[in-house]
Amino acid sequence: EVTAGGQSYVDSLNYFENFFFEDEVELPFRIAAGLAVNRGPLLITGDLTFADWQEVRYAGPLRTDDRGYAYRATTDLRVGAEWNFARVPLSIRAGFASTPVPYNQVGTDIYHGRSVEARFSPERRSWSTGASYLVDPSMALEVALVSGSFERTGTSPEGRVTTERYEEQRIYLGTQFRL
User: By C-alpha distance, which of 78, 54, 77, 80 is closest to 67?
Assistant: First the structure.
């Protein structure tokens, strides 16, 4: 039992009976374009991806309390560079990615189902570094580190503040095989 605003709510779920749950979510069409330039030992790459997230459908369009869209259009940007050493079978790389948050809302009152437009910088940025070592002409070992974060805050009509902070630190290990 949960009490909020002077009212009590009872939430119960019986996990002992079989039940069936199915969701169908339609995602937006995405348009992407990229470019790579190779100048000797230096490779420079970049790409843009556009998506109009207002096209997301979950039993119809996702709307806010004031009938606005819960999502917005975004354009992702990724750029990177790789340097291949001539005397050793090693390459190093670095990159930057900007992947804006498409969601416009922050739930600020979970008991009454209210949400308001989020007040935040929607930019989610990350940096990456990595290396690749060519073991032989057909196989390479790779490692990469990705680091990034973003934060957003929303305030309900009653003055309740909800803050979401997202940080990521990822390490990728891989093997590349060339035919």
Answer: 54
CB 101 within 8 A of CB 136: no
Beta strands at 114-117 and 119-120: parallel, antiparallel or unpaired:
unpaired
- Global pTM exceeds 0.85: no
Is the CB of residue 66 less than 8 Å from the CB of residue 101? no
d(CA 3, CA 55): 36
Residue pair 71/54 in contact (Cβ under 8 Å)? The answer is yes
Local confidence band at 160 (pLDDT 50, 70, 90 cut-offs)? confident
Segment (H or E) for 83: strand 73-84
Distance CA 34, CA 47 (A): 4
Radius of gyration for the chain, computed over Cα atoms and rounded to the nearest angstrom:
23
User: Token match 């990159």: residue?
Assistant: 95
Distance in angstroms (rounded) separating the CA atoms of residues 178 and 175? 10
The one-letter amino acid code at 135 reads: V
- Kindly provide the b/e burial profile for residues 61-74, where b requires at least 16 CB atoms within 10 angstroms of the residue's own CB: ebeeeeeebbbbeb
Give the phi and the psi of residue 54 in degrees, each rounded to 5: -65, -15
Identify the DSSP state of 27. P
